[in-house]
Amino acid sequence: MPSALVVDDDPTVGDVVGAYLVRAGFEVHRASDGATALDLAARTSPDVVVLDLMLPGVDGLEVCRRLRRDQPEVPVLMLTALGEETDRIHGLEVGADDYVTKPFSPRELVLRVQAILRRASGQAPLPGSSGDAHPGDPGTDLPPTTADGDLVLDRRAHVVTRAGSELALTAREFALLDWFLRHPGVAHRRDDLIRHVWGWDFGDQSTVTVHVRRLREKVEAQPSAPRRLVTVFGVGYRWDPTPPDAS
Fold first, then answer.
1. What is the pLDDT of residues 196-231, one digit of tens each?
2. Rounded Cα distance, 117 and 236, in Å
3. Domain residues of the chain, as ranges?
4. In the chain, how many H helices and how many E strands?
5. Would the pTM count as exceeding 0.85?
6. Residues with Cβ < 8 Å from 73, sequence gap 6 or more?
7. What are the φ and ψ backbone dihedral angles of 101, each rounded to 5 degrees?
8. Count of other CB atoms within 10 angstroms of residue 143
9. Average of pLDDT values for 225-242?
10. Architecture of domain 145-246 in CATH?
């Protein structure tokens, strides 16, 4: 049974989210402040964290920052107030995988939790794959691994290494990198990436911008002067594969 840590200082929100997740088959742990959330995360090792930004004491941004440091593999879904774009961007910058704005539909939230959990476990069918086949499984059109210079993405293990060292990627960063590696040399618009990588028909395109920035910090030798994940001005982003003689 997957486990979820729900962190919200509003007991009504916590009760509703917890009840829907239990109904969806999750074991749920609850926290109403940041310090308790960090303690519970360390003791229970949840599969996913639903985290409110506005918390007493240690706020949600700091909780997310520490989770990313101590448990980088755990996906985080942030809850933000409607219209607080700055908070959403800050949340993504410190490592949140996704966000839902308040007020929200509890059923939609559960679907988003399930989606990022599937991606984190490497079990979600990737866009462009057939049926429910798992990435890297025999019979799909995707190889188990893709290499680009010193970068290797392993779909079965859901691991990315650079020069032999494993990168601490979030589930969304992994999916985004996988998409670029499967489409080298192609310029992608932000709205296309929202649709193909996030699975949304529409969304805040700053989400893509922040995730690209975070990904560059991990895959580029000089993130401020990217050579792999480049900006195509007026369009979006393109992955330029490493020349064979440069690997």
1. 887 766 666 788 888 999 999 999 999 999 999 999
2. 27
3. 3-121, 145-246
4. 8, 12
5. no
6. 120, 168
7. -95, 140
8. 12
9. 94
10. Orthogonal Bundle (1.10)
User: How does DSSP assign 21-50, residue by residue?
Assistant: HHHTT-EEEEESSHHHHHHHHHHH--SEEE
Q: Give tens-digit pLDDT for 117-146.
A: 876 665 544 433 333 334 444 335 678 999
pLDDT given for residue 227 in this prediction: 93
Residue 192 burial (C-beta neighbours within 10 Å; 0-12, 13-18, 19+): middle
Q: How many alpha carbons lie under 13 Å from residue 17 in its C-beta half-sphere?
A: 30
Q: Which pLDDT value is given to residue 242?
A: 87
Please check whether the domain covering 3-121 is classified as CATH 3.40.50.2300: yes
Q: Evaluate whether 135 touches 129 at the Cβ level (below 8 Å).
A: yes
Taking all residues of the chain, what is their mean pLDDT, rounded to a whole number?
85
